[in-house]
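ZP: hey, is the magnesium ion complex queued? I don't see it on the tracker
AM: it wasn't, my bad. submitting now with these inputs:
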Amino acid sequence: MRSISILGATGSVGEQTLDLVRRNGEEWKVVALTAHSNVAALAAMAREFDAEVAVIADETRLDELRAALAGSGIEAAGGRAALCEAASRPVDMTVAAIVGCAGLGPVMAAIEQGGTIALANKEALVSAGEVMTEAVKRHGATLLPVDSEHNAIFQCLSGNRIEDVRSITLTASGGPLRLVENLDAVTPEQAIAHPNWDMGAKISVDSATMFNKGLELIEAHHLFPVGLDRIRIVVHPQSVIHSMVEYRDGSTLAQLGPSDMRVPIASCLAWPLRMDTPMAPLDLAAIGELSFFAPDEVRFPATRLAREAAQAGGAAPAILNAANEIAVAAFLERKIAFSRIPLLVERVLSEGQLPDPPRTLEEVLGVDGSARKRANELLELA
Ligand code: NAD
Ligand code: MG
């Protein structure tokens, strides 16, 4: 039996992870399950999987959680410190599925235990960069990518040497707005309606702006050190090929699969072995055609901004991420137009360079906090 904790258990990735755990129940002992504010969902999961501890990040809901877990013998905890404490309990596998830089502290706490981290929470890696990858090395932890593109690359690299890689190509669906003419008039409902994937609201908006691919470019840069100029992006609307690795001999390896996050999650849960998933096999004859386009960085400047931030290094990726989180939240609350998201990010980025790269978790959180503050000020000014 292996032990598992799921940070962000009530989200899209968290629920899909629990679906796989449910199907292989006898293999897993669930230690910690966490959520932001959905007490009912968290308590139900904690009871179903007989978790050791359930943590609600919003501390004002702790009494509610205690009441919901009364008589179960499951520990109830609340607040950010409790979240990190739960994440630091030794387990074989931690699934990091909180959305945003809010997940960074708990991920770092899990890394310090030296276990295996299945990382969905790309914002944490984008913000912390080397602070995270160095902690992984120092504590002997293993980072497995859940993000479908990075999981695909990880699989395509298996058995090969990173020195032999000529290039990595991240595929992008292009999102629901690829062919929409007027980006000013886009509503949150339109932006969230992803053609291929069923995901949380924030990443769905990121897919529509292409910031998701921008964040993934930075994520890939940290996970697979082949050099930023060797990481490419191609729009592939069918989302059948999840990414590719080209080698020096001219071979390109690709990973294909249904657009269902349970495939890359299962690949992490079972790694280095394989496990069953319930999806229908890929039917290429029914899909018929696969197409590819160059990204349009004039209409969707996010990938250019992310590449520039990655090139600048230091605090820039954390600033880009923080400004984007604020911009997306403002868009979802209908405070700003869709087309303003990249403008706000570019503005905060252009103002916010720091002389030294952040070297500790606290410094990363400091950069994140000031970039959020500046983004909020700019929103107020408008
Ligand atoms: P989601 O919004 O569905 O779920 C987020 C989870 O994090 C929930 O459990 C929520 O309670 C928790 N959470 C939110 N804010 C929090 C906070 N401030 N403190 C503590 N917990 C908080 O998001 P998702 O779509 O599951 O995405 C999770 C992460 O995985 C994101 O980083 C996303 O980019 C990445 N990812 C998601 C998918 C997908 O298909 N959904 C695919 C690839 C990568
Ligand atoms: Mg992805």
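AM: back. The radius of gyration is 20 Å.
ZP: great, adding it to the tracker
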